[in-house]
Structures are given as C-alpha cells and as structure tokens.
C-alpha cells in the first residue's frame, strides 16, 4: 500500500536516472536491514517533489509502506511536528493488524495521531494540523522538565512504531520542504537520523538550498547530519542543456520549433517548474508569465527596502555589475550597500562571479526588471549610460552604451554607439550581434536630427549593412528584404559606383533564395549598366566579378570568362585584391566545367590566398567551397573531405557558418560524411543555429534524416519528413535529400507501394522544377528495388496484370534516370564517378523487373562505389548476395560478409538486420552475428523444417517458401512432408494448428 498520491500532472520524470538510481540503492540497503537517510537539496521548482513522488511509487510497488509529509511556510514558529503528523496520520486508521498493534502500544503518539488527541478547538486547523497546534498549546502550560520528558517519549514512540512496522515490511518516510521546518520537527528528524541502525527504514527529506542561508536554523543541523555514516546528501541540479531540451519537448502539448525549444531550455536554465510556466505562457513564450513573476518576486518581499532597491538597480544592468558601478547608479552609501548586497547574496538571490554581482537566475532578473516603474527604469538606464561614458573601457563598451542610451531615450548617443558596436561585432565574427546593432540603429534613425547623425552614413548604407549581416546570420529572406529596401531608398543623385554596389548586394542576396535566379541576374545587369561606361575602379571590378559568376550560372560561359578576365584587369588596376579573388573563383569554376581540374584548383587556391589577405571572408569561403567541390566532382573523397573540413572550420572561426557559403560547406561536409561512412556519434551535427531561417535549418535536417533512416531511427525520421516536405520549394537540395530519405524509409519499413509513390512524386517534381537533374538518377535508383518487389509479389500471387503494371512503372523510372544521365549538366562536363555509380545501380535494380536480378550488374554497381561511398557499396553487396542466391551462383557469403562488416561498423541497423536475415535463410555464417542455424530446441523439427513451417503458417506457397529460403520448390515439399510426419498431420493446415498447440509456433498466422 502506497500512501503517496500520484502526480496529477502526469509530467514525465526526465533525465533523473542517476538520482533515482542512488535513491533506489538506498532503498535496497534498507530492505536488507541497513537503515539510511538521504537529504535531497535543490532549488525551488527543480523537481524535488517529482523525484520523491517517483521514489514513493517505486518503493510502494515493491511492497514498502510509504509515509509522506511536508512542512509549510507558516511565520512565527510554524506548527510543531507538522510533517510527521501528516506522514503518520494514515497509521491511526490503518486496518493492517501489524500497524494497529504498533500504534496502539504507544500512547505518546496521541499527540500526533488525530484519534488520540483532545477535541479540536474552534478555529483550529483540521485533522493533524489542529491536533498538533492543540498539543503545542498544552505543552506550553507544562514545566520544562515535563516538556522534555514528553518530547523524548514522543521521539521514542515515533522511532519505535517505524521500527516495529519495518519488521514486517520496509518503511519509507518522505519529508518535504525542511527549510520551513519548526524547531520541534528539526529535533525529531535529528533524533531519528542519529538512531538509524538495522531497521528496514529509509528516510528521505528535501529542502531548498537557496533558502538555507548562513543564519538559517537548518544550516547547522544539516552540517551535523551529513557527518552521520547513515546519512548522504543528494544535490538535485537543474537539467543540463540537452536534458532541458528533452524535457521541453516531452512537456509540450504540440511539436515545437527547434529555436523555441532551445530558447525555453535556455531561459529556464534547466529548472522544470520554470519550463512549465514558460510553456504555459503562450506559443512564443516571449513574455515572463505573470504567475511565475509573482512567485519569483514573492521571495524578495521579505527583504528590507534598501535591498530591494539595490536588486532593481542590478536588474537594469542586464549583466554582471561591479561594486563601484552599483554604488554610483544606486546612489546609496557604502555601508548601506554592503548590507543590502550581503542580504541578497546570503539568500542566494545574487551571486558573485569574477568580482561582479549577477542574479542567480536570469528569470529572477527578468521578473525584477519587469516590475520597475517606467520612470525609475529610464533613470537607472541613464545612470548606467553616464557611467559607461565616464569610464570607457573593455570589450563591448559601445554595445552597452547603445543599449542603455536607447532604453533611456538618448537616441543621439545610442545611434553612433550602435554603429560602432556593429563593426566590433563583425570583427569578433558575430554577425547576429552585428545585425541586432544595425537594426537598432535603423529603428531610431528618423528620431535623430540630421545634424546629429554620424558622418558617412545614410539610410541606404544601413539597409545594405543589414542585408549583409542578415545573410551571414542564416536569414536569407530578411537579407533580400533589406537589400530590396536599399534599392528603393536610393536617391536620384546617388553616385553610380555607390548605386551599383547596392544593386550588386541585392543580386547576391537573391541568389540565396530558390527560384530567384532570373531576378538576381537582372539586378546584376542593372548594376553593370551603371558602370559599363566608367573607367576602371574597385566598384567596377566587384560588379564585373559578380556578373561573371551569374553568367556562369545561366550557362553563358564565354561571356562569363570575358567578364571575369575584365574584373581581374580592373581589380589589379584599382588594387582591389578582394574583387580579383572573386573573379579568380569564377575562372576556376569555368576551368572545372571545361574539364581542366588542375588549372581550376590552381586558380581557386590563388583566389583563397588573395581573399584571405584582403579580408574578403565571403570570397575566401566561396573559393574554399569550389576547391573542395572540384575534388568531390571527381570522387576524390579524401581530399574533398579535407577541404570541406577546412572550409567549415574557417566559417566557424569567422562567424559565417550560416552565411551562403558557410552553409554550403557545412551541408556538403555532412553529406560527404554520410557517403564515406564517417558518421557523427551524436545529433549535434544536425543542430541549426539560433535564429536561422527554417529553410536554412531544413538544409541540415534534410541531410541528417538520411542518417536517421540508415541507423534505424525510423520514428524520428518520420516525424521530420512532413515538415521537410513543406520546404521542398524553398531549396532544391532539401527536396533531393529529404525525398531520398523518404523513399528509403518506406522501403526499409516494407511499404514498397509508398516508396514507389514517393519516387514518382519526386521525379515529377524535379521534371517540373529542374528537368533532368543528375540527382534524378539517385532517386530512381533508390525507388527501383521497391518496384521490383511489388512486381515479384504480384507474380507470386498470380496477379499478372498488376505485375505488368509495376514493370511499366519500373521502365518509366528507368527511362527517367537514363535521361537524367544523358541530358543532365555535370559541372565538369561529363558524368563523374558518383553519377556513373548511381546509373549502374539503377540498371542493376531494373534488371530484376521481369525475373531474377543480374548479380553481375550488382557486383559492378558495388565496384563503382569503391571511390569511397562505403554505405552505398555495402547496400549493393547485400543486393548482389540476394541476386546470387536467387540464381544459385556462388559468392554470396563473401558479399554478405562485406556488407555486414560495414553495417556493424556504421551502426546501420536496418542493413545489418537485413543482411543477417538473408544469411540465416541462406545458412551463411557471419562473423560476429551468431550462428546462422537456430540453437537446438526441444522440438522434433530441424532448423530448416522450422523455417519452412513458419512460412507455411504465414500462408506462403511452396514456391514462395523456396524463393525466401533459396531452395527449390521440390525441396520445400520434402521438408513439409517430414514436418507433417513428425507432427502426425495429414494436411499442411493441420500441421500448422498442431505446431501452435505444442508451442512450436508463436507468431500468429496472417
């Protein structure tokens, strides 16, 4: 019988396995007669009650008597023995004879048990609470020796009753919120814990660490208790970042975006109660919930007014505050400030980090700041701004000045400070911070008189900067919006060079969006027309270089070459190394397209060096990307991996990992790791940055879902695919990767009709949006085995019309793949090793449309992937083994062994299980997979006879059984005859029924 109520909320106990393990271990010791106690410490809302409730449910299910009580926050001394009275109250009415006998023999317990106390006086609390209060008043009328004797008798009675009940079954006593315990409760707890010996008793008590300050009466007791050999302390810390995200996801009533999950986990700092309140506040969880704010602020109401004022000043800083700054802004004397801060620190409201005062929890800072009156908020911000101006020092000075000036409505100071902070953030590789600063400057631009604005800036300049930083922060849609606004805001008198750069920025921003190439090309042509008749200059060189890149993209290589060479000449004349590097990148890509990989790599390496020397980070990343792509196109996997890894490291170092080429480098590296078998150990590789657009995040997830499918994490993959399907039109690569993953997921799940449907949908989508793309070969190759499976199943059941329909579908997909190979446009001009491998794989799969597949074609496909595509090669080896077994040729064992080794190494569970199943049916022993023949059982049937009977039970014909087990139809008939003879059956159906009755079959027949 458990006396602990279940959690009404049903919220899962997430990520507390280690803590629960320690508590369960303590209970296990108590069951063996080694009594112990655990003191659970943790902040408010961290999950102490949930943990103790879970322990109560576990121990109750193990047969223990679970008793629970809690202290309450009552001023002026509290209620004596309240948690023990609440915990022991069920014993007074328990029907259990052991409990009744233990209680009845101890009259001292009448002070705690309701039925033993005096009649409840009017106005007293109900139940145990009222009895305890009555006992306390009666005790005050006794002399001190009588009180001491009565208390000792009560303590002995409580220990005695628990000890006696524990002889019959373990007892678990749960006491919550010790920080509110009165002195009597603390004394009784100390008495119990100091006398734990061989009782089958576990005592678990919880308290709020943050409330037990230096002068708290519980503090001294705790230090004494933890010295006892039978007492241990368990600190319940907030969730770490990963566990917090898991908790947020588990708690949410509907799926949340990754950004929102991360934001709630971060703001809550892993506190489960804060998570619940933030989720309850609404869809975006932007504002601090009123209920949570009240709970947080209630803690501060007990502090003196001077302490509360100091806390308000700290909240305005938004970061750590030095003592000197706090004294100046708060305007209080040193002595008063010391006392106020000491009070806040001792009560764990403020902590000291590196010599600065900060709130222990950011949400408490939010609550205090939100409670400020408008006037005092403005004055305090102005005070911080004045101090920053008087003491300019340290990194982030301008950002702090901009923040406080803006909040105090001093826009004339905030505007230049924001612009200086923008450039500082750019130098630090923080484009997101730079974007926030320039957006802040834009928001107050019109509020600052023209004569007070910084020289050299106008609205067009700010919009262009905002576009650039949006793009490098992974928000291409905002980059386009800002760049378009900049073109619309251009004054008629703008110099041609300046206007051309604005239009060039617009064209490059558009390039990041799918389906905007025509508009982007028109924008760069407009930029070129502005400078076409001008002399050589850096502006002209940059426009020519960008124009060359666009001309290459629209398949006008001669004009692209002419423009790139002109850009190099202009750049050298104007000494613009960045523009020259940009043109060299285009020259390198043109050389690659012409089949001259050596020249391409030389030019791309030169472009990288020049761009780095000029500080042109985006050009440098573009050069690194195309250099790595040059090796990838030729299936030179190792150098490609090396260069993509270099590029990603440089993008992270420069803060441009979510810019156009930073993203492309990361996506290509993750894709290449999938192909080469260098699979990440955790999910961190798929995590998008905070604030990036959904389309950018989808680029990464579309690759990652391939890993999920290949590893057998089907439910996770299935949950991501619908959202990725909605993002197909946002980026072609999302459609390709997510579509491929969806085909493979359906195929591994045995949903071949679904796999074929997705393949046809993807092929049709590609024909409409990007006809005869080379990636169409891969899509049709992935879907073809499912077409073959459907055709084979239709023929096996005698449905020749359906089989012919599936064959026609297969022929249509085969034609699509062949046309993609013939009419596609490889960057190098000819179909590379990867494309050829997928084409051979498509042909190998299609060879099984009307009969057994050709093992030689599957072997050829496997060999074609030997350039480094280890997972795809293993898949082909599995198909090769199946084809060899189907036609009775040797060599299947070697192919299966090769596929199995790769699947085990990668953790590719579906492939591993498929290989093992095939090996078992073919009686092939695989290293590390256990015996192919099932272990000896108490059964008259041999392993092969059991295999045959299992398939007959599923309704298979003798021919189908033979095909699955790679034996002839005649051999199946022989095995089945032996089975019927051994089981005494005259028909196959009777043999199946007898096998079920005798427990030889456990899987229900279909």
From TrEMBL:
InterPro entries: AAA_16 (IPR041664), P-loop_NTPase (IPR027417), Sig_transdc_resp-reg_C-effctor (IPR016032), TPR-like_helical_dom_sf (IPR011990), Tscrpt_reg_LuxR_C (IPR000792), WH-like_DNA-bd_sf (IPR036388)
Low complexity composition-biased segments: 115-136
Segments traversing the membrane: none
Classification via SMART domains: HTH_LUXR
Matching Gene3D superfamilies: Tetratricopeptide repeat domain (1.25.40.10), Winged helix-like DNA-binding domain superfamily/Winged helix DNA-binding domain (1.10.10.10)
Taxonomy, superkingdom: Bacteria
Keyword Manganese listed: no
Domain HTH luxR-type, first and last residues per copy: 934-999
Region spans: Disordered: 115-145
Keywords from the named record: ATP-binding, Nucleotide-binding
Pfam families, alphabetized: AAA_16, GerE
UniProt name for this protein: Helix-turn-helix transcriptional regulator
